[in-house]
Design goal:
By secondary structure, the protein is α+β, with helices and mostly antiparallel strands. 49% of the residues lie in helices and 17% in strands. It folds into 4 domains: 1-30 and 173-311, Nucleotidyltransferase, domain 5; 31-131, no CATH class; 320-472, UvrC, RNAse H endonuclease domain (Nucleotidyltransferase, domain 5), CATH 3.30.420; 487-539, DNA polymerase, domain 1 (Orthogonal Bundle), CATH 1.10.150.20. Strands 11, 12, 13, 14, 15, 16, 17 and 18 form an 8-stranded mixed sheet that branches. The chain is flat and about 75 Å long. The mean pLDDT is 81.
Length: 541
């Protein structure tokens, strides 16, 4: 490399290309959530997305946790009455929905508001998300006074409530700089080759939620690690604020790269005193807290795995644990789920969902046998077996699993059951905990409610249950709609396809009224009435 600047740019390129295992992961294998709105739409709405695009829309964020992103969106939807429904549902509406009655939407779907009125509310929401709080409060105050002067007191009260909510939201934030500047403060905490880097964004003088990036296997100096992290982060974000505060002196070339990226001068400084030093300390404390949480969690998971290995008599802590559950409604639409935990954590890309093929009716034992037989037959072909199988249920489900293992000659495969204490709770013992059922023990193993091994098994079981129930609902929903469409005379494959293309989704078809259904290609008033009645009956309303 001829210059240090070229070296930094090449480093960033190679990291993206080769994705080294121990390099710091800025996004935990996924993008942070952003709030998106497209102001060019006729009736714009806010949504959450992970990958911002250069599509003319406005993006706000990133939000480091999904919880924070969703709470922010919920606050916007409660405070600024814009539509939340999809385009398909919006187009099919003929009367306002419940959100209009709750004053959570001004119902553009049925022309109960003007375009200008909708755009005014949209601008208020954009100002809030953009951190322009002073301008927003000024606008809301002006609107409230004007509405009150015009004796539109109900509308003035709504604006007053929004203003109160915005002020309450601002009161919970930390004022970081009386000059109301925009900057990022970075902090570092490390112990050997492990640690975390945190970014504390300050926008409009208010400190936002820190974003923390754990790392392991990093042996370089602090300055090298922070320089590489900032280089990657801001290049992925596309820009940086005018000032970046760091805990240690960094090469001047980084400021040059960030200035080119921003199209204006960016100062990268290591403050020694004053408020800026306090911001760097806050970022460092955020990194330290995340490190403590992560490694405390690692120790808890390791204790849990060691305990499970002892209970199930395994040679060592299980790396891959699989859990199975099934779901049906009075024997209809039977399905099952397989969830996988790797090193004590969910591996959702390895989850599997099964449609039951051979079992008729609500037979949990036979369903468990079919699903395990299919899974283990595949494992015999690939040679990849789990370290431990957990079945959701008691002795009966465990015996079904053991029967399949015996049938396939896999008696050495470890398997246990996790049963809910239904008998104990019926007898009045409300503090009874789940029981671990073992093949070789007549009595189940009962652990304390807060035992990490029990907590891990319960997490595994709950994931299997939620996955099975969710898949069952989806399967039942598809069947209900399909049967409703197929059972009606005059609605064949062509019209079914046309309906789905016209409305965009099954939920939009269910939400449509008779007039909206009649406007779909190939439909008429009579067919629409029949379809609407069938959907109404199928939904149980």
């Amino acid at each position: 490399m001829r210059t240090e600047k070229e070296a930094l740019l090449l480093e960033n390129l190679l990291i993206k290309q080769h994705k080294p295992r121990y390099n710091i992961k800025l996004r935990d294998d996924k993008n942070f959530l952003h709030v998106r709105v497209d102001p060019r739409a006729e009736w714009p709405r806010f949504t959450l997305v992970r990958r911002p695009k250069d599509d003319g829309a406005k993006y706000f964020g990133p939000y480091h946790t999904a919880t924070t992103a969703r709470r922010t969106l919920q606050f916007v939807q409660r405070s600024f009455p814009l539509r939340t429904c999809t385009d398909a549902v919006l187009a099919s509406r003929r009367k306002p929905c419940l959100l209009y009655q709750l004053k959570r939407c001004i119902a553009p779907c049925v022309a109960l508001c003007t375009k200008d009125a909708y755009d005014d509310v949209l601008q208020d929401a954009v100002l809030f998300l953009g951190g322009k709080d002073r301008e927003l409060q000024s606008r809301l105050t002006t609107q409230m006074v004007a509405l009150a002067d015009a004796e539109r007191f109900e509308e003035a009260a709504r604006v007053r409530d929004v203003l109160t909510a915005v002020r309450a939201s601002l009161d919970r934030q930390v004022v970081a700089d009386v000059k109301m500047g925009d900057r990022d403060a970075w902090g570092l905490h490390r112990e050997g080759d492990r640690g975390a880097i945190a970014c504390l964004p300050v926008r409009g003088g208010l400190a936002r939620e820190p974003m923390v990036f754990p790392f392991a296997g990093e042996l370089g100096e602090d300055a090298e690690l922070i320089t590489a992290t900032l280089n990657r982060w801001y290049r992925e974000e596309g820009t940086s604020p005018a000032e970046v505060l760091v805990p240690t002196e960094l090469p001047a070339v980084l400021a040059e790269i960030l200035s080119e990226l921003r199209g204006a001068i960016v100062r990268v400084t290591c403050p020694q005193r004053g408020d800026k030093t306090r911001l760097v300390e806050i970022a460092g404390n955020a990194a330290k807290s995340r490190f403590a949480v992560d490694h405390g969690e690692e120790e808890r998971i390791q204790r849990a795995l060691d305990g499970i290995a002892e209970i199930a008599q395994l040679a060592g802590p299980p790396v891959r644990i699989e859990c199975y559950d099934n779901s049906n409604l009075l024997g209809m639409d039977p399905v099952a789920s397989q969830v996988v935990f790797l090193d004590g954590r969910p591996s959702r890309k390895d989850y599997r969902r099964y449609k039951v093929k051979t079992v008729v009716g609500a037979d949990d034992y036979a369903t468990m046998e079919e699903i395990l037989r299919r899974r283990l037959t595949r494992a015999m072909e690939s040679g990849e077996f789990p370290d431990l199988i957990v079945v959701d249920g008691g002795r009966g489900q465990l015996n079904s699993a053991l029967a399949v293992l015996h049938e396939l000659g896999l008696e050495q495969q470890p398997v246990i059951g996790l049963a809910k204490p239904r008998t104990e709770r019926k007898a009045g013992d409300r503090d009874a905990v789940d029981k671990i059922v073992l093949p070789w023990e007549p009595e189940p193993v009962v652990l304390r409610y807060d035992d990490p091994s029990l907590r891990l098994l319960q997490h595994l079981r709950d994931e299997a249950h939620d996955t099975a129930v969710g898949f069952h609902r989806k399967t039942r929903s598809k069947r209900t709609l399909k049967s409703a469409l197929e059972d009606l005379p005059g609605i064949g494959p062509t019209r079914r396809k046309a309906l789905l293309l016209h409305f965009g989704s099954m939920s939009a078809i269910r939400a449509a009224d008779v007039d909206a259904l009649a406007q779909a290609p190939g439909m008429g008033k009579k067919l629409a009435e029949g379809l609407w009645k069938a959907l109404l009956a199928g939904s149980g309303r």
